[in-house]
Amino acid sequence: MRRKKIYEGKAKILYEGPERNTLVQYFKDDATAFNNKKKAVIEGKGVLNNRISEFLLSQLNDIGIETHLIKRLNMREQLIKNCEILPIEFVVRNIAAGSLSTRLGIAEGTMLKRPIIEYYYKNDDLDDPLVTEEHIEVNGWASTLEIAQASETAFRINDFLIGLFRGVGIKLVDFKLEFGRVWNTDESRVILADEISPDTCRLWDTKDEKKLDKDRFRKGLGGLVEAYTEVAKRLGIMPEGSNIMEIKSGISKTIKLKKK
Ligand code: TMP
Q1: Please, which pLDDT band fits residue 2 given cuts at 50, 70 and 90?
Q2: How far is CA 192 from the centre of its chain?
């Protein structure tokens, strides 16, 4: 069936959904870093992110955090609620790494005194600059109330995910969230949108600090699909014995993809 493409991003495509106010979110195998300067196609990545993100967002829905996820449709697609994505990346950090370490000279791996949140303006031409709440408010990208609500939700998500990952031997170093506005007649609220996956988190093995996330691609370490598969296995969302080749071919019983 030919569907109308609404938007194509670096790692996902949005298509018109079957009902009003719904979309279909398709996970591609494309990996990019440094604002598209580094690119590759990594077979199987989309299938894994679809499954991992479905799992994490449904857990959040279960604890009362509203997300855009309605249900996973197949290996690469989810049915989601349509929302107006705020042009802000909300980054929560527990441990210094990545751009925080580079910008402020804090050694990677330094535990922060408490979780912090940062805002980045989603704009490829400007390389997604770090912005303040005031920049967001005066430019009309989101209201003060929306920033406050999304930030509070981001910290709740952090508390929940730290525990969930700790239980499977993974440290949640940092992650990026996106929120969208949904309307109820003339009132709006913000809900969690986009994805939560090893593409959008830093995940380190608790024992040896092995990177189990997209830094494997950013830093050219290799073994990305193997690392994402390890995350899925630890989360208990891949049946024992499912193999990477099956995921890569995208037709597996792998991920028999049944909902637990
Ligand atoms: P950073 O250290 O590069 O600023 O990244 C912080 C977190 O946000 C890290 O978990 C990776 C994630 N992230 C994205 O999901 N998308 C992006 O475009 C960037 C720059 C980071």
Answers
A1: confident
A2: 10
- Residue entry with tokens 């509203």: 66
Q: Is 215 in the pocket of ligand 1 (CB under 6 A)?
A: no
C-alpha to C-alpha distance for 114 and 186, rounded to whole angstroms: 37
Q: Report the C-alpha gap between 210 and 214 in whole angstroms.
A: 12
Q: How far apart are alpha carbons 91 and 87 in whole angstroms?
A: 13
DSSP code string of 99-125: HHHHHHTPPTTPEEEEEEEEEEE--GG
Q: What is the pLDDT of residues 234-256, one digit of tens each?
A: 999 985 556 666 666 654 443 44
Give the tens place of pLDDT for each residue, 8-63.
Answer: 999 999 999 999 999 999 999 999 999 999 999 999 999 999 999 999 999 999 99
Q: What angle do CA 31, 33, 35 make, to 5 degrees?
A: 120
- How far is the centre of ligand 1, averaged over its atoms, from the C-alpha of 185 (Å)? 34
CA atoms of 232 and 234, how far apart (whole Å) = 6
Contact 91 CB / ligand 1 (< 6 Å): yes
Task: For residue 38, give both structure tokens.
Answer: 């580094």
Cα distance between residue 204 and residue 170, in whole Å: 6
